[in-house]
Amino acid sequence: MRHILSLIVILWGFFARAETYTVLVYHGANPPYNFIANNEQSGIFKDLFKRLGELTGHTFELVPWSVAKGQKLFDEGKIDIEPGVHPSWRLQRGIPGIYTNAYASSTEVILGRQSNVTVTNPAQLYGKVIGRVRGYRYGDFEQHFGRDKILIYDNISEKELLSQLLYKRVDYVMLGDTTADYYRSTVNAYKNFEVVYEISTLPVYIRLQPSLTLLQLQLNKALAQMLQHDEISAIYARYGATLKH
Q: Across-strand partners of 36?
């Protein structure tokens, strides 16, 4: 019996050991998920991982990079965690990773300047130039990209894409609806931008390095508790966003 108790104590110490993990966020131009306020990281992901740190005992360090550079660093094992991801977006990466349970959803949309255009079929967009954040993936919708189809113009962030849309350097842009809503509600020049087409609505997960199976279990437990008590909804609402399950 004494040996069993000793083993339990040892295992408990192993499972409870606090660690520090790096979390990929996108260089301050991806509100309301991540942005700079008062010279520090702010947004949904900061608040989400602050609470996850309280529940798991771990420290989560947000590291801002461009999408393309961040993906490369994850592939190299230099970043531990990427939040807000659907597995289909990372199938072509060197390290697809493992995932927690879903904690929200993301609707990817095509945003345009105010017009009378109603798009019911992607073929209606053939010949148009649509801006995309370099490194973002759009699953089956990408079959409509290419010569004689939708022409893609890559940029480094949603912030840059929306500026290009305003100045008519692209016809449309692709981004998540939560980010689109945030910019339309906070930047007067963008308030008349319109969603002309919904690409997809997918659950999102936290992506981890494949070796982090214990952390995966811990995060799943913490996320379940947060969802049960509507804590994630409250974090989204803090930034004027509605949590989608």
A: 41
